[in-house]
Amino acid sequence: MQITTINFFHYQGFQDKVWAFGMMQFAHKHLQNISGQSFYKLMGSGKGMGFNPLPDWSTYCLLQIWDSESQADDFFKHSNLFERYRNRCHNIQTIYMKNIVSKGKWSGRNPFEASNNLDKDNLQLAVITRATIKFSKLRKFWSYVPTSHQQLSNNPGLIYTKGIGEVPIIQMATFSLWKNKEALQNFAYQSKEHAKAIKMTRELDWYKEELFARFQVYRFEGEAFKSDGSKSQAF
Description:
Elements: E1 3-10, H1 14-26, H2 28-31, E2 37-45, E3 59-66, H3 69-78, H4 80-88, E4 91-104, E5 125-133, H5 138-148, E6 158-167, E7 171-178, H6 181-190, H7 192-204, E8 207-221
Antiparallel strand pairs: 1-3, 1-4, 2-3, 2-6, 4-8, 5-7, 5-8, 6-7
Helix pairs in contact: 5-7
């Protein structure tokens, strides 16, 4: 019954952005021992789409893995910490997901368990890619990132994507929402830039640790996404 939730917190105003940045340190003591939570990551984000070393001070992210949906709901409804976030944010987007497949490790382990309760008629997918970049490879990696993401901006099958991460420059991840599996596969296998990035990853051994996870999105709370992160009419 494991589920994964991801929250995107959007801030306006200088004071709220400063508060959000401070919570990247101070929120951990409240997040470490939550009932029903087996894993969490509190992350900042980068400007624009995909990986970006320049920070986006207006957007932060909380990823959590739960033993059940009811325990996630209890945290979002009754946690004093989440209420503080809610009071500071301009808006919050919360996505509920079931894992389809996950390969690799995050902080030394793979925390995602494949669900046996997927809806075959639900086509919408989310993808998380995460990596710790080797220090010796940082320059080569970041010099190639803009090329590898060229075809994302005009991709008709992409609903939303955002670069997120625990530590700027070194520990990076991307979260993306896709209309269906075909849209994701078209980008993964037909984009020449993306194919070249995969090849270079294998040849140059950029990563100290990496993980790829694909999810079925089954519930959404908050304003809907579109590719530039602004409000959309439908999710």
